[in-house]
């Protein structure tokens, strides 16, 4: 089992749902949060939401309680573009303990098998290379996937095994950062993978190829799509900030669409599009086809230019102003 760091006084205040708060506010933006270990993703989300008094919030891809690292939290209008990050590639640093299998494939489970570790460093490099590219994974029982309306981990805790179909995922990069074949054999890897990849399952599968088994002892998310952990803030640091400093940490909602071409409308076209009506791009220079981020005097939302040259709305942002009180 991993030791969980005792929360500091400021963290306990942040994590306390009974703590007094201001009235919920309309807050729009993206918080780059460094999730602590020992906390669920939803717990981290709710703590960040309380700190910002945000009326609406969501996150973009669950991290296990044991895992740490980047958890982008979306507030207000930014939640309309969550699919951009849910579908994005993720990058992790993972520590594998060789020679031991656990019931959950990570350090939070019970030891179910131990084997001698006789592999060499060259064997480890060869085993990891086998998982590059398109592979299939069987989702672990200890996961939030649903079966007949219940999460698989509910069945697992009752000792019930549910048959799961293998899923196609892609491992874009798998680099070995450290190998230690001493008394506690460990391998540290860096993985960039497609959505839906279970790093716990990857660790377990690498261990089986090596013939000794393995489980995950640490996992840290380094990036989600173009967003990097380097610009993230911890809940503890966020809780110690003044309100203005917390607001300054938020990225604008259109930062989630920065990879898309920009299209600017004016006059009547802006007014029509703001009401959800399709507008013609005839006469505009070099208009791209496909998804675009649309602006008028301000950011308006996500649109798509079809082959007929018409711009159609996919997601429009609200005209309510950040800081207004929300009645929820």
Automatic annotation (TrEMBL):
Do the record's keywords include Aminoacyl-tRNA synthetase?
no
Q: Which Gene3D superfamilies match?
A: Pseudouridine synthase, PUA domain
Q: Which residues form the Pseudouridine synthase II N-terminal domain?
A: 49-199
Please name the catalytic residues of this protein.
Answer: 64 (nucleophile)
Outline the extent of the tRNA pseudouridylate synthase B C-terminal domain.
Answer: 200-240
Q: Which Pfam families does the entry link to?
A: TruB-C_2, TruB_C_2, TruB_N
The tRNA pseudouridine synthase II TruB subfamily 1 C-terminal domain covers: 261-317
CDD domains per the UniProt record, alphabetical:
PseudoU_synth_EcTruB (cd02573), PUA_TruB_bacterial (cd21152)
* Record keyword Isomerase present: yes
> What's its EC?
5.4.99.25
Q: Which GO terms describe its molecular function?
A: tRNA pseudouridine(55) synthase activity
Matching entries from PANTHER family are given as: PSEUDOURIDYLATE SYNTHASE TRUB1 (PTHR13767:SF2), TRNA-PSEUDOURIDINE SYNTHASE (PTHR13767)
What the record says about family reads: Belongs to the pseudouridine synthase TruB family. Type 1 subfamily.
Can you name this protein?
Answer: tRNA pseudouridine synthase B
Whose protein is this, by species?
A: Uliginosibacterium silvisoli
Gene name tied to this protein: truB
